Protein backbone atom coordinates (compact mmCIF):
# COMPACT_ATOMS: atom_id res chain seq x y z
CA UNK A 1 0.00 0.00 0.00
CA UNK A 2 1.50 3.35 -1.00
CA UNK A 3 0.49 4.91 2.30
CA UNK A 4 2.18 2.20 4.42
CA UNK A 5 3.67 3.77 7.52
CA UNK A 6 1.59 6.98 7.25
CA UNK A 7 0.17 8.00 10.62
CA UNK A 8 -3.24 9.51 11.24
CA UNK A 9 -1.54 12.80 12.15
CA UNK A 10 0.42 12.82 8.88
CA UNK A 11 -2.74 12.11 6.88
CA UNK A 12 -4.56 15.02 8.56
CA UNK A 13 -1.66 17.39 7.90
CA UNK A 14 -1.78 16.54 4.17
CA UNK A 15 -5.54 17.11 4.10
CA UNK A 16 -5.39 20.36 6.10
CA UNK A 17 -2.70 21.71 3.72
CA UNK A 18 -4.89 20.87 0.72
CA UNK A 19 -2.32 18.35 -0.52
CA UNK A 20 -4.83 15.47 -0.31
CA UNK A 21 -8.28 16.35 -1.60
CA UNK A 22 -9.97 13.03 -2.49
CA UNK A 23 -11.36 10.08 -0.54
CA UNK A 24 -9.54 8.92 2.59
CA UNK A 25 -9.83 5.20 1.80
CA UNK A 26 -6.35 3.68 2.10
CA UNK A 27 -4.83 6.58 4.05
CA UNK A 28 -2.94 5.82 7.31
CA UNK A 29 -3.47 2.03 7.28
CA UNK A 30 -4.27 0.69 10.74
CA UNK A 31 -5.74 3.98 11.99
CA UNK A 32 -9.45 4.47 12.62
CA UNK A 33 -11.38 6.73 10.23
CA UNK A 34 -14.61 8.36 11.35
CA UNK A 35 -17.89 9.69 9.99
CA UNK A 36 -18.76 13.25 11.05
CA UNK A 37 -22.00 14.94 12.09
CA UNK A 38 -21.88 18.50 13.45
CA UNK A 39 -25.15 19.36 15.19
CA UNK A 40 -26.28 22.60 16.91
CA UNK A 41 -26.41 22.34 20.72
CA UNK A 42 -30.22 22.66 20.66
CA UNK A 43 -30.47 19.26 18.94
CA UNK A 44 -27.20 17.74 20.17
CA UNK A 45 -28.64 15.88 23.15
CA UNK A 46 -31.25 14.25 20.92
CA UNK A 47 -28.56 13.30 18.43
CA UNK A 48 -26.46 11.78 21.22
CA UNK A 49 -29.50 9.73 22.28
CA UNK A 50 -30.01 8.72 18.66
CA UNK A 51 -26.46 7.35 18.50
CA UNK A 52 -26.87 5.48 21.79
CA UNK A 53 -30.15 3.96 20.58
CA UNK A 54 -28.69 2.97 17.19
CA UNK A 55 -25.16 1.75 17.91
CA UNK A 56 -24.80 -0.33 14.74
CA UNK A 57 -25.25 2.52 12.23
CA UNK A 58 -23.98 5.18 14.69
CA UNK A 59 -21.11 3.76 16.79
CA UNK A 60 -20.03 6.88 18.68
CA UNK A 61 -16.26 7.09 19.08
CA UNK A 62 -16.03 10.69 20.25
CA UNK A 63 -17.68 14.10 20.44
CA UNK A 64 -16.58 17.68 21.09
CA UNK A 65 -17.59 20.29 23.64
CA UNK A 66 -20.03 22.88 22.18
CA UNK A 67 -18.11 25.38 20.07
CA UNK A 68 -14.81 23.52 20.42
CA UNK A 69 -13.24 22.36 17.17
CA UNK A 70 -10.66 20.18 18.90
CA UNK A 71 -11.02 16.44 19.65
CA UNK A 72 -7.99 15.61 21.80
CA UNK A 73 -9.26 12.11 22.62
CA UNK A 74 -9.24 11.20 18.92
CA UNK A 75 -5.98 12.74 17.81
CA UNK A 76 -3.20 15.30 18.24
CA UNK A 77 -4.02 18.82 17.11
CA UNK A 78 -7.28 17.89 15.34
CA UNK A 79 -9.16 20.89 13.92
CA UNK A 80 -12.51 19.46 12.86
CA UNK A 81 -13.10 22.55 10.66
CA UNK A 82 -10.19 21.84 8.28
CA UNK A 83 -9.01 18.25 8.69
CA UNK A 84 -11.48 16.45 6.42
CA UNK A 85 -11.06 16.66 2.62
CA UNK A 86 -14.75 17.45 2.01
CA UNK A 87 -17.78 18.57 4.05
CA UNK A 88 -21.48 18.91 3.31
CA UNK A 89 -23.29 21.91 4.77
CA UNK A 90 -27.00 21.13 5.22
CA UNK A 91 -29.89 23.64 5.47
CA UNK A 92 -33.50 22.54 6.08
CA UNK A 93 -32.60 18.92 5.43
CA UNK A 94 -30.98 19.58 2.07
CA UNK A 95 -27.34 19.82 0.98
CA UNK A 96 -26.63 23.55 0.59
CA UNK A 97 -22.98 23.25 -0.39
CA UNK A 98 -19.88 21.06 -0.33
CA UNK A 99 -16.59 22.59 0.82
CA UNK A 100 -13.12 21.60 2.00
CA UNK A 101 -13.10 24.09 4.92
CA UNK A 102 -15.96 24.91 7.29
CA UNK A 103 -14.18 27.59 9.33
CA UNK A 104 -16.51 30.29 8.00
CA UNK A 105 -19.57 28.20 9.02
CA UNK A 106 -18.37 27.53 12.55
CA UNK A 107 -20.54 28.65 15.48
CA UNK A 108 -20.15 28.61 19.27
CA UNK A 109 -23.04 26.16 19.66
CA UNK A 110 -21.86 23.40 17.31
CA UNK A 111 -21.07 19.90 18.63
CA UNK A 112 -19.04 17.50 16.50
CA UNK A 113 -19.96 13.80 16.67
CA UNK A 114 -17.54 11.20 15.27
CA UNK A 115 -18.85 7.76 14.36
CA UNK A 116 -16.94 4.59 13.44
CA UNK A 117 -16.58 3.82 9.73
CA UNK A 118 -16.50 0.61 7.73
CA UNK A 119 -13.11 1.54 6.23
CA UNK A 120 -11.73 0.33 9.58
CA UNK A 121 -13.05 -3.20 9.21
CA UNK A 122 -12.02 -3.61 5.59
CA UNK A 123 -8.34 -3.88 6.55
CA UNK A 124 -8.91 -6.94 8.80
CA UNK A 125 -11.09 -8.51 6.08
CA UNK A 126 -8.27 -8.10 3.53
CA UNK A 127 -5.72 -9.42 6.04
CA UNK A 128 -7.91 -12.53 6.41
CA UNK A 129 -7.54 -13.14 2.66
CA UNK A 130 -11.03 -12.03 1.68
CA UNK A 131 -11.60 -10.17 -1.60
CA UNK A 132 -13.35 -6.77 -1.67
CA UNK A 133 -14.76 -6.33 -5.16
CA UNK A 134 -15.09 -2.54 -4.93
CA UNK A 135 -11.34 -2.38 -4.24
CA UNK A 136 -10.67 -4.54 -7.31
CA UNK A 137 -12.88 -2.23 -9.38
CA UNK A 138 -11.44 0.92 -7.81
CA UNK A 139 -14.90 2.24 -6.92
CA UNK A 140 -16.84 3.20 -3.80
CA UNK A 141 -18.71 0.56 -1.85
CA UNK A 142 -22.43 0.46 -2.83
CA UNK A 143 -24.71 1.90 -0.13
CA UNK A 144 -28.51 1.54 0.16
CA UNK A 145 -31.41 2.93 2.18
CA UNK A 146 -33.32 0.02 3.73
CA UNK A 147 -36.76 -0.62 5.19
CA UNK A 148 -35.11 -1.24 8.59
CA UNK A 149 -36.22 1.67 10.81
CA UNK A 150 -33.85 3.36 13.23
CA UNK A 151 -34.99 4.02 16.80
CA UNK A 152 -36.24 7.64 16.98
CA UNK A 153 -34.79 10.27 19.31
CA UNK A 154 -36.40 13.72 19.15
CA UNK A 155 -36.40 14.89 15.52
CA UNK A 156 -33.98 12.16 14.45
CA UNK A 157 -35.58 9.21 12.68
CA UNK A 158 -35.48 7.47 9.33
CA UNK A 159 -34.24 4.39 7.54
CA UNK A 160 -31.05 2.54 8.35
CA UNK A 161 -28.50 2.90 5.56
CA UNK A 162 -26.27 -0.10 4.78
CA UNK A 163 -23.13 -0.82 2.78
CA UNK A 164 -22.84 -4.04 0.75
CA UNK A 165 -19.90 -6.35 0.08
CA UNK A 166 -20.37 -9.78 -1.51
CA UNK A 167 -18.48 -12.96 -0.65
CA UNK A 168 -18.52 -16.68 -1.27
CA UNK A 169 -20.60 -18.21 1.55
CA UNK A 170 -17.65 -19.53 3.60
CA UNK A 171 -15.98 -16.11 3.35
CA UNK A 172 -19.25 -14.43 4.37
CA UNK A 173 -19.15 -16.52 7.54
CA UNK A 174 -15.54 -15.40 8.15
CA UNK A 175 -16.61 -11.79 7.58
CA UNK A 176 -19.31 -12.15 10.26
CA UNK A 177 -16.71 -13.50 12.69
CA UNK A 178 -14.12 -10.81 11.95
CA UNK A 179 -16.45 -7.81 12.09
CA UNK A 180 -18.21 -9.11 15.21
CA UNK A 181 -14.97 -8.27 17.03
CA UNK A 182 -15.32 -4.61 16.04
CA UNK A 183 -18.54 -3.17 17.49
CA UNK A 184 -16.94 0.30 17.45
CA UNK A 185 -16.93 0.29 13.64
CA UNK A 186 -20.45 -1.08 12.91
CA UNK A 187 -19.71 -4.62 14.14
CA UNK A 188 -21.38 -7.68 12.61
CA UNK A 189 -23.49 -7.41 9.45
CA UNK A 190 -27.18 -6.59 9.87
CA UNK A 191 -28.28 -8.70 6.89
CA UNK A 192 -27.13 -11.35 4.46
CA UNK A 193 -28.48 -12.85 1.28
CA UNK A 194 -32.02 -11.55 0.76
CA UNK A 195 -31.85 -7.82 -0.07
CA UNK A 196 -35.55 -7.54 -0.98
CA UNK A 197 -36.46 -8.46 2.60
CA UNK A 198 -34.80 -5.25 3.85
CA UNK A 199 -36.39 -3.13 1.15
CA UNK A 200 -33.60 -3.15 -1.44
CA UNK A 201 -35.28 -3.77 -4.79
CA UNK A 202 -32.29 -3.50 -7.13
CA UNK A 203 -28.68 -4.09 -6.05
CA UNK A 204 -27.52 -2.45 -9.27
CA UNK A 205 -28.99 0.90 -8.20
CA UNK A 206 -27.40 1.93 -4.90
CA UNK A 207 -28.60 5.14 -3.21
CA UNK A 208 -25.00 6.22 -2.50
CA UNK A 209 -21.63 4.97 -3.78
CA UNK A 210 -21.18 2.87 -6.90
CA UNK A 211 -22.85 -0.32 -8.14
CA UNK A 212 -20.67 -3.41 -7.73
CA UNK A 213 -21.95 -6.64 -9.34
CA UNK A 214 -22.45 -9.72 -7.13
CA UNK A 215 -20.75 -12.67 -8.89
CA UNK A 216 -22.62 -16.00 -9.22
CA UNK A 217 -21.95 -18.16 -6.17
CA UNK A 218 -21.61 -15.18 -3.83
CA UNK A 219 -23.97 -13.67 -1.26
CA UNK A 220 -24.47 -9.95 -0.64
CA UNK A 221 -23.63 -9.06 2.97
CA UNK A 222 -24.90 -5.80 4.48
CA UNK A 223 -23.39 -3.72 7.26
CA UNK A 224 -25.01 -0.73 8.99
CA UNK A 225 -23.42 2.39 7.50
CA UNK A 226 -22.26 5.70 8.90
CA UNK A 227 -24.16 7.49 6.14
CA UNK A 228 -27.30 6.74 8.18
CA UNK A 229 -27.03 10.12 10.00
CA UNK A 230 -27.19 11.90 6.64
CA UNK A 231 -30.44 10.11 5.75
CA UNK A 232 -31.70 10.99 9.22
CA UNK A 233 -30.69 14.65 8.99
CA UNK A 234 -32.55 14.77 5.69
CA UNK A 235 -35.65 13.13 7.19
CA UNK A 236 -35.52 15.45 10.21
CA UNK A 237 -35.32 18.53 7.94
CA UNK A 238 -32.76 19.98 10.36
CA UNK A 239 -32.39 23.77 9.94
CA UNK A 240 -28.60 23.58 9.96
CA UNK A 241 -25.91 20.95 10.31
CA UNK A 242 -22.65 19.81 8.73
CA UNK A 243 -21.51 16.30 7.81
CA UNK A 244 -18.55 14.80 5.98
CA UNK A 245 -18.97 14.04 2.29
CA UNK A 246 -19.31 10.23 1.96
CA UNK A 247 -15.90 8.50 1.82
CA UNK A 248 -14.10 11.71 2.92
CA UNK A 249 -13.46 10.89 6.58
CA UNK A 250 -11.65 12.15 9.63
CA UNK A 251 -8.48 10.07 9.99
CA UNK A 252 -7.84 9.69 13.73
CA UNK A 253 -4.86 8.66 15.86
CA UNK A 254 -6.78 5.66 17.24
CA UNK A 255 -5.54 2.26 16.21
CA UNK A 256 -8.11 -0.12 14.74
CA UNK A 257 -7.11 -2.54 17.51
CA UNK A 258 -8.25 0.09 20.06
CA UNK A 259 -11.84 -0.40 18.86
CA UNK A 260 -11.68 -4.21 18.67
CA UNK A 261 -12.85 -6.66 21.29
CA UNK A 262 -11.87 -10.30 21.83
CA UNK B 1 -38.04 -28.82 29.43
CA UNK B 2 -39.10 -32.10 31.05
CA UNK B 3 -35.48 -33.17 31.60
CA UNK B 4 -34.52 -29.94 33.39
CA UNK B 5 -32.07 -30.72 36.18
CA UNK B 6 -31.14 -34.14 34.78
CA UNK B 7 -27.38 -34.72 34.89
CA UNK B 8 -25.34 -36.52 32.29
CA UNK B 9 -24.77 -39.33 34.78
CA UNK B 10 -28.51 -39.69 35.40
CA UNK B 11 -29.21 -39.78 31.66
CA UNK B 12 -26.63 -42.55 31.15
CA UNK B 13 -28.06 -44.60 34.01
CA UNK B 14 -31.52 -44.47 32.40
CA UNK B 15 -30.08 -45.52 29.04
CA UNK B 16 -27.93 -48.33 30.51
CA UNK B 17 -30.97 -49.70 32.35
CA UNK B 18 -33.01 -49.71 29.12
CA UNK B 19 -35.41 -47.12 30.55
CA UNK B 20 -34.58 -44.62 27.80
CA UNK B 21 -34.34 -46.16 24.34
CA UNK B 22 -34.87 -43.31 21.84
CA UNK B 23 -32.91 -40.26 20.74
CA UNK B 24 -30.91 -38.35 23.31
CA UNK B 25 -31.95 -34.89 22.06
CA UNK B 26 -33.20 -32.91 25.05
CA UNK B 27 -31.66 -35.18 27.70
CA UNK B 28 -29.49 -33.60 30.44
CA UNK B 29 -29.75 -30.00 29.24
CA UNK B 30 -26.45 -28.16 29.50
CA UNK B 31 -24.36 -31.33 29.23
CA UNK B 32 -22.28 -32.16 26.16
CA UNK B 33 -23.46 -35.05 23.96
CA UNK B 34 -21.00 -36.86 21.72
CA UNK B 35 -20.83 -38.83 18.48
CA UNK B 36 -19.09 -42.22 18.74
CA UNK B 37 -16.69 -44.09 16.46
CA UNK B 38 -15.06 -47.28 17.73
CA UNK B 39 -12.11 -48.23 15.54
CA UNK B 40 -9.72 -51.22 15.71
CA UNK B 41 -6.21 -50.30 16.92
CA UNK B 42 -4.75 -51.11 13.48
CA UNK B 43 -6.65 -48.15 11.99
CA UNK B 44 -6.96 -46.02 15.15
CA UNK B 45 -3.90 -43.84 14.54
CA UNK B 46 -5.13 -43.02 11.05
CA UNK B 47 -8.57 -42.20 12.45
CA UNK B 48 -6.99 -39.93 15.07
CA UNK B 49 -5.10 -38.14 12.29
CA UNK B 50 -8.35 -37.88 10.33
CA UNK B 51 -10.01 -36.10 13.27
CA UNK B 52 -7.05 -33.74 13.72
CA UNK B 53 -7.08 -32.90 10.00
CA UNK B 54 -10.87 -32.36 9.94
CA UNK B 55 -11.72 -30.60 13.21
CA UNK B 56 -15.00 -29.07 12.01
CA UNK B 57 -16.80 -32.38 11.22
CA UNK B 58 -14.72 -34.36 13.76
CA UNK B 59 -14.06 -32.22 16.86
CA UNK B 60 -12.37 -34.77 19.13
CA UNK B 61 -13.43 -34.42 22.76
CA UNK B 62 -12.02 -37.70 24.07
CA UNK B 63 -10.79 -41.20 23.27
CA UNK B 64 -10.20 -44.42 25.18
CA UNK B 65 -7.16 -46.63 25.66
CA UNK B 66 -7.26 -49.73 23.38
CA UNK B 67 -9.64 -52.32 24.84
CA UNK B 68 -10.79 -50.01 27.64
CA UNK B 69 -14.51 -49.28 27.67
CA UNK B 70 -14.18 -46.49 30.26
CA UNK B 71 -13.81 -42.76 29.51
CA UNK B 72 -13.11 -41.17 32.88
CA UNK B 73 -12.29 -37.77 31.37
CA UNK B 74 -15.79 -37.56 29.88
CA UNK B 75 -17.88 -38.85 32.76
CA UNK B 76 -18.25 -40.87 35.93
CA UNK B 77 -18.55 -44.63 35.44
CA UNK B 78 -19.04 -44.46 31.65
CA UNK B 79 -19.25 -47.89 29.97
CA UNK B 80 -19.09 -47.11 26.27
CA UNK B 81 -20.52 -50.60 25.52
CA UNK B 82 -23.90 -49.97 27.17
CA UNK B 83 -24.40 -46.25 27.72
CA UNK B 84 -25.75 -45.22 24.30
CA UNK B 85 -29.35 -46.06 23.36
CA UNK B 86 -28.42 -47.42 19.94
CA UNK B 87 -25.25 -48.54 18.10
CA UNK B 88 -24.45 -49.48 14.54
CA UNK B 89 -22.06 -52.39 13.96
CA UNK B 90 -20.32 -52.01 10.58
CA UNK B 91 -18.69 -54.79 8.52
CA UNK B 92 -16.87 -54.07 5.23
CA UNK B 93 -18.24 -50.52 5.13
CA UNK B 94 -21.87 -51.58 5.54
CA UNK B 95 -24.22 -51.52 8.51
CA UNK B 96 -24.41 -55.14 9.71
CA UNK B 97 -26.74 -54.55 12.64
CA UNK B 98 -28.15 -52.01 15.08
CA UNK B 99 -28.19 -52.87 18.78
CA UNK B 100 -28.55 -51.26 22.20
CA UNK B 101 -25.58 -53.13 23.74
CA UNK B 102 -22.22 -53.89 22.12
CA UNK B 103 -20.71 -55.90 24.98
CA UNK B 104 -20.71 -59.06 22.88
CA UNK B 105 -18.86 -57.25 20.07
CA UNK B 106 -16.17 -55.80 22.30
CA UNK B 107 -12.50 -56.64 21.58
CA UNK B 108 -9.20 -55.87 23.29
CA UNK B 109 -8.01 -53.79 20.35
CA UNK B 110 -10.94 -51.37 20.06
CA UNK B 111 -10.46 -47.62 20.59
CA UNK B 112 -13.49 -45.39 21.23
CA UNK B 113 -13.41 -41.87 19.77
CA UNK B 114 -15.93 -39.30 20.98
CA UNK B 115 -16.67 -36.27 18.81
CA UNK B 116 -18.63 -33.12 19.64
CA UNK B 117 -22.26 -32.98 18.49
CA UNK B 118 -24.51 -30.20 17.25
CA UNK B 119 -27.07 -30.95 19.99
CA UNK B 120 -24.67 -28.98 22.22
CA UNK B 121 -24.93 -25.79 20.23
CA UNK B 122 -28.70 -25.92 19.80
CA UNK B 123 -29.26 -25.02 23.46
CA UNK B 124 -27.37 -21.70 23.19
CA UNK B 125 -29.21 -20.93 19.92
CA UNK B 126 -32.55 -21.44 21.65
CA UNK B 127 -31.42 -19.38 24.65
CA UNK B 128 -30.61 -16.56 22.20
CA UNK B 129 -34.24 -16.59 21.08
CA UNK B 130 -33.67 -18.32 17.74
CA UNK B 131 -36.23 -20.78 16.38
CA UNK B 132 -35.20 -24.32 15.38
CA UNK B 133 -37.81 -25.58 12.93
CA UNK B 134 -37.00 -29.27 13.40
CA UNK B 135 -37.80 -28.82 17.10
CA UNK B 136 -41.14 -27.20 16.22
CA UNK B 137 -41.90 -30.10 13.88
CA UNK B 138 -40.64 -32.71 16.36
CA UNK B 139 -38.32 -34.27 13.77
CA UNK B 140 -34.61 -34.86 13.28
CA UNK B 141 -32.43 -32.18 11.78
CA UNK B 142 -31.90 -32.72 8.00
CA UNK B 143 -28.38 -33.95 7.15
CA UNK B 144 -26.70 -34.00 3.72
CA UNK B 145 -23.57 -35.35 2.05
CA UNK B 146 -21.76 -32.50 0.32
CA UNK B 147 -19.19 -32.04 -2.42
CA UNK B 148 -16.77 -30.62 0.19
CA UNK B 149 -13.98 -33.21 0.53
CA UNK B 150 -12.48 -34.12 3.88
CA UNK B 151 -8.68 -34.26 4.24
CA UNK B 152 -7.63 -37.91 3.83
CA UNK B 153 -5.72 -39.89 6.49
CA UNK B 154 -4.85 -43.49 5.61
CA UNK B 155 -8.04 -45.27 4.52
CA UNK B 156 -10.25 -42.48 5.83
CA UNK B 157 -11.60 -40.13 3.19
CA UNK B 158 -14.92 -39.03 1.75
CA UNK B 159 -17.40 -36.19 1.66
CA UNK B 160 -18.11 -33.82 4.52
CA UNK B 161 -21.60 -34.35 5.91
CA UNK B 162 -23.52 -31.29 7.12
CA UNK B 163 -26.65 -30.55 9.14
CA UNK B 164 -29.01 -27.74 8.07
CA UNK B 165 -31.02 -25.26 10.09
CA UNK B 166 -32.72 -22.26 8.46
CA UNK B 167 -33.05 -18.77 9.92
CA UNK B 168 -34.06 -15.26 8.98
CA UNK B 169 -30.86 -13.50 7.82
CA UNK B 170 -30.28 -11.47 11.01
CA UNK B 171 -30.74 -14.65 13.07
CA UNK B 172 -28.34 -16.51 10.76
CA UNK B 173 -25.73 -13.87 11.60
CA UNK B 174 -26.45 -14.41 15.34
CA UNK B 175 -26.10 -18.18 14.81
CA UNK B 176 -22.65 -17.67 13.24
CA UNK B 177 -21.60 -15.58 16.25
CA UNK B 178 -22.94 -18.01 18.84
CA UNK B 179 -21.56 -21.21 17.31
CA UNK B 180 -18.17 -19.59 16.58
CA UNK B 181 -17.67 -19.66 20.35
CA UNK B 182 -17.97 -23.47 20.34
CA UNK B 183 -15.23 -25.01 18.21
CA UNK B 184 -15.47 -28.20 20.29
CA UNK B 185 -18.96 -28.87 18.93
CA UNK B 186 -18.44 -28.12 15.20
CA UNK B 187 -18.02 -24.35 15.65
CA UNK B 188 -19.15 -21.86 13.01
CA UNK B 189 -21.20 -22.96 9.99
CA UNK B 190 -19.31 -24.15 6.92
CA UNK B 191 -21.86 -22.76 4.46
CA UNK B 192 -24.85 -20.47 4.14
CA UNK B 193 -27.41 -19.77 1.50
CA UNK B 194 -26.38 -21.58 -1.70
CA UNK B 195 -26.76 -25.34 -1.16
CA UNK B 196 -26.12 -26.23 -4.82
CA UNK B 197 -22.61 -24.80 -4.53
CA UNK B 198 -21.72 -27.50 -1.97
CA UNK B 199 -23.33 -30.28 -4.00
CA UNK B 200 -26.77 -30.37 -2.39
CA UNK B 201 -29.29 -30.58 -5.24
CA UNK B 202 -32.53 -30.89 -3.29
CA UNK B 203 -32.99 -29.67 0.29
CA UNK B 204 -36.21 -31.72 0.50
CA UNK B 205 -34.26 -34.96 0.16
CA UNK B 206 -31.71 -35.16 3.00
CA UNK B 207 -29.32 -38.14 3.10
CA UNK B 208 -29.92 -38.59 6.84
CA UNK B 209 -32.52 -37.19 9.24
CA UNK B 210 -35.81 -35.65 8.13
CA UNK B 211 -36.69 -32.99 5.56
CA UNK B 212 -37.53 -29.62 7.14
CA UNK B 213 -38.90 -26.93 4.78
CA UNK B 214 -37.06 -23.59 4.56
CA UNK B 215 -39.70 -20.83 4.93
CA UNK B 216 -39.68 -17.87 2.51
CA UNK B 217 -37.40 -15.14 3.82
CA UNK B 218 -35.02 -17.58 5.51
CA UNK B 219 -31.58 -18.86 4.54
CA UNK B 220 -30.37 -22.44 4.99
CA UNK B 221 -27.29 -22.55 7.24
CA UNK B 222 -25.03 -25.62 7.21
CA UNK B 223 -22.79 -26.94 9.97
CA UNK B 224 -20.23 -29.75 9.67
CA UNK B 225 -21.84 -32.85 11.16
CA UNK B 226 -20.60 -35.70 13.35
CA UNK B 227 -22.18 -38.17 10.94
CA UNK B 228 -19.20 -37.47 8.67
CA UNK B 229 -17.24 -40.39 10.20
CA UNK B 230 -20.05 -42.77 9.19
CA UNK B 231 -19.83 -41.62 5.56
CA UNK B 232 -16.06 -42.00 5.82
CA UNK B 233 -16.22 -45.49 7.35
CA UNK B 234 -18.52 -46.44 4.49
CA UNK B 235 -16.14 -44.96 1.89
CA UNK B 236 -13.16 -46.68 3.52
CA UNK B 237 -14.94 -50.05 3.49
CA UNK B 238 -13.53 -50.69 6.97
CA UNK B 239 -13.60 -54.41 7.86
CA UNK B 240 -15.07 -53.72 11.29
CA UNK B 241 -16.09 -50.78 13.39
CA UNK B 242 -18.92 -49.50 15.57
CA UNK B 243 -20.63 -46.11 15.63
CA UNK B 244 -23.62 -44.61 17.39
CA UNK B 245 -26.94 -44.58 15.53
CA UNK B 246 -27.56 -40.97 14.39
CA UNK B 247 -29.22 -38.87 17.14
CA UNK B 248 -28.50 -41.58 19.77
CA UNK B 249 -25.51 -40.04 21.53
CA UNK B 250 -23.25 -40.49 24.51
CA UNK B 251 -24.40 -37.98 27.15
CA UNK B 252 -21.26 -36.84 29.00
CA UNK B 253 -20.59 -35.06 32.31
CA UNK B 254 -18.93 -32.15 30.49
CA UNK B 255 -20.77 -28.85 30.62
CA UNK B 256 -21.41 -27.14 27.28
CA UNK B 257 -19.54 -24.15 28.75
CA UNK B 258 -16.46 -26.40 29.13
CA UNK B 259 -16.24 -26.60 25.32
CA UNK B 260 -16.93 -22.90 24.70
CA UNK B 261 -14.40 -20.16 24.12
CA UNK B 262 -14.79 -16.40 24.57
TrEMBL record, chains A, B:
Enzyme Commission no: 4.2.1.-
Keyword Lipid metabolism: no
Provenance organism: Achromobacter agilis
Keywords: Lyase
First-level EC class: lyase
Name by which UniProt lists this protein: Putative hydro-lyase AGI3411_02861
A single MF term (Gene Ontology): lyase activity
InterPro entries documented for this protein: D-Glu_cyclase, Putative_hydro-lyase, UPF0317
NCBIfam families, alphabetized: PRK05463.1
Record family assignment: Belongs to the D-glutamate cyclase family.
Amino acid sequence: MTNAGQSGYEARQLIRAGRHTGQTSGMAPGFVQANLAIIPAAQANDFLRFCVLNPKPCPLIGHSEPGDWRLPALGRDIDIRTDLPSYRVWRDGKIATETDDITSYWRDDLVAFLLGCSFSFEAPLLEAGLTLHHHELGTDVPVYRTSIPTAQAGPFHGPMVVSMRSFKPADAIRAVQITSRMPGVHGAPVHIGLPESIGIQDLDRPDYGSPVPVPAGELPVFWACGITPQAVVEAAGLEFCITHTPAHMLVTDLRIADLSVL
